[in-house]
Amino acid sequence: MRIGIRAHDMERAPLEELVKNIRNKGFDSAQLALQKAIHDFNALPEAMTPGMAFYIKEIFLRYHVDIAVLGCYLNITNPAEKERTQIMETYKTHIRFASLLGCGLVGTETGAMNREYTFEAANHSEKALEVLIENLKKIVDYAEKMGVIIGVEPVYKHIVSDIERANRVLNSVASPNLQIILDPVNLLNYDNYKEQDDIIKGAFQLFGKDIAAIHVKDFRVADKEIVEIPAGAGGFFHYETLLSLIKSRKPFIHVLLEGTSPSNAVTARKHLEDIYQNISSGE
């Protein structure tokens, strides 16, 4: 597996120093959300020219860091038509940019049925799923033309809230350019966290061939809520279940840490590597 980190979880620094730090901390790859990670020049959609793509690509190549995911985490089901239209255009800009950047995967979540991008019961409705599929088809059609994969990340509080809904979306859109970014902790809540092994295994059974990248973090439970913590911080996540499936099914997949800070990123990486090595050696 190729372990990476979200670039905006690193020390704030000019781009070249940022990428150098990613490599120096032992990471092979990064998830790049342009406006969150880049602070030394304009990274808004208006600036996303071929020249900027080639400049960023050159720096990542210099330090041998993959751009595993280009993040575009916007509310694809925003009910405000004008805002949604702009969001759709922003996705297209990121898809074009990814094709020049040498990054094959544009990552997104699956939205909410409100402008605030917050949880409400309607997010889990059949109507919400229909709206999402309709909008995703437009984006995926564009991604097909540009040779880029859209990676959707299921999250319990969003529209694609479980593995069954994720599988329905994949089957409904029916394109090899729509795949999954799997973050098992994002699928957990107080009622199902004890079934996390079944959820992880079920994801690989239902759509394992379409898992394009994986996010990893840990969690604790407090006041009947899932509280996310960094990998290696002593939570309840069953790393062995996930890493065993990665070892046997997808040994070179990008595995990206979430929720780390510069002070604990290396510890989190080593935690994954130690467990993976034990699985690899049969210990």
Task: Record keyword descriptors for this entry.
8-stranded parallel β-barrel; single chain; 283 residues; 42% helix; 9 helices; alpha/beta
Distance between the termini: 18 Å
Q: Calculate Rg over CA atoms.
A: 18 Å
Fraction of residues in H or I helices = 40-55%
H and E order: EHEHHEHEHEHEHEEEHEH
Unreliable sequence segments: none
Q: What fraction of the residues are assigned to beta strands by DSSP?
A: 15-25%
Strand order across the largest sheet: 1-2-3-4-5-6-7-10
- Average pLDDT, rounded to a whole number, is 96
Structural class: alpha/beta
**How many beta strands in the DSSP annotation?**
10
Helical segment count: 9
Sheet of most strands: 8 strands, parallel, barrel
Anisotropy-based shape: globular
Descriptive notes:
The protein has 283 residues and is α/β, with parallel strands linked by helices. The chain has an eight-stranded parallel barrel with strand order 1-2-3-4-5-6-7-10, surrounded by six helices. The chain has a two-stranded antiparallel sheet with strand order 8-9. The chain has nine helices and ten strands. Strand 6, helix 7 and strand 7 (211-216) form a beta-alpha-beta unit. It has helices at residues 15-24, 34-37, 50-62, 81-101, 126-146, 163-173, 196-207, 239-249, 265-280; strands at 2-6, 29-32, 66-71, 105-109, 149-153, 178-182, 211-216, 218-222, 225-229, 254-257.
